[in-house]
Design a protein that fits this description.
- By secondary structure, the chain is mostly helical.
- Strand 1 and strand 2 form a beta hairpin.
- A 3-stranded antiparallel β-sheet has the order 4-3-5, with no helix packed on it.
- About 9% of the residues have low confidence.
- The radius of gyration is 31 Å and the shape is elongated.
- Belongs to the peptidase S54 family.
């Protein structure tokens, strides 16, 4: 998670040995050891532990809080690039690193170390940039200054959410997110909402920026293979990414609607239904008179709608008489 609680004290819960044991167990069973994932795990852990041999060379957490206001006001790139590698306490660090361990191994094994490293670097910059853009937009258009624009946050979870989007982009299966079964490709969105519900201190904007960065990365990657204009794809990708939740909800609503067209009863194709040749109304097989025009069902009038029509209407009733019968029938 990316926490937005300023001044939170570190709590030592003895969870680092659990992280070390899980990492060793995962790498021991792998025939090929993904080096970039291991490097990211080591970097985040060393920054948190701050051993004496590197302590003089790395900034304090108070100097690298991700704060949109300070970043734009002072053009502080240190906050922009270094804040993902800082964590508030052991649970914060271990939760993120356990998630990174699983996703990193799967992605780096499938795409190779060099491509994975470049992707992580791109997703880090894109997730931070999208979060900064969202915070500035909310401040300018909705005056959300204290809620997001002046918020302090740190953590690697923005990148982790982006990795989750990339990892699940082509998965058509279902997965469980905190006990709720959802389509795997939308698991990041479900986790975004559930995490915010159960942990309000988590940085909603940072997680959202990671998801949008992952979607944008996939759009740009596809455009690079198709030879499309990258500038147009960036604008289109950002637009589609921002409106994705609304389009997803709209598709769910549309899928539940049932379209009913044509004349007659719903359920065409069922047995026990006959069609009047005069007005083409579908009547129940239990009725001997057409409900619409009042014409009796007799020889030559009425056939099952399951049967193919092989002869034309034999009714000689004038059109005016047919209309009069309809009016009388429903008056």
């Amino acid at each position: 998670m990316a926490y937005s609680v300023e001044g939170r004290r570190r709590a030592s819960g003895g969870m680092l040995p659990l992280l070390a044991l899980s990492t060793v167990a995962e790498y021991y069973r792998l025939p090929w050891k993904p080096p970039v994932t291991a490097g990211l795990l080591a970097a985040n852990t060393l920054v948190y532990l701050r051993p004496s041999f590197i302590d003089p060379f790395i900034p304090h957490i108070n100097e690298v809080w991700f704060n949109p206001n300070l970043i734009l006001k002072h053009k502080d790139l240190k906050r922009f690039f270094l804040s993902p590698f800082y964590h508030l306490d052991e649970p914060h660090l271990v939760y993120n690193m356990m998630s990174l361990l699983w996703k990193g191994i799967k992605l780096e094994t499938s795409m190779g170390s060099s491509e994975f490293a470049s992707m992580v670097f791109a997703l880090l910059g894109m997730s931070q940039g999208v979060t900064l853009l969202l915070a500035k937009s909310l401040h300018v258009f909705f005056d959300y200054e204290r809620a997001f624009y002046s918020e302090y946050s740190v953590g690697f979870s923005g990148v982790i959410f982006a990795l989750k989007v990339v990892l699940n982009s082509r998965d058509e299966d279902y997965t469980s997110v905190y006990g709720i079964l959802v389509p795997t490709k939308y698991a990041a969105w479900a986790e975004l909402i559930l995490v915010q519900m159960f942990m309000p201190s988590a940085s909603f904007l940072g997680h959202l920026g990671g998801i949008l960065a992952g979607i944008l990365y996939l759009k740009l990657k596809r455009s690079s293979h198709s030879g499309l204009d990258p500038v147009s794809m960036v604008v289109r990708g950002v637009t589609r990414a921002v409106t994705l939740p609304l389009r997803f909800l709209s598709s769910l609503v549309r899928s539940r609607r049932r379209r009913i067209t044509g004349r007659g009863r719903v359920g065409r194709g069922q047995s026990g239904v006959w069609r009047c040749q005069s007005c083409t109304y579908d009547n129940s097989g239990l009725q001997s008179v057409c409900e619409m025009c009042g014409l009796g069902r007799g020889r030559g009038n009425g056939w099952s709608v399951n049967q193919r029509q092989t002869h034309s209407s034999s009714s000689d009733i004038p059109l005016d008489e047919l209309r009069r019968r309809r009016v009388e029938r429903f008056s």
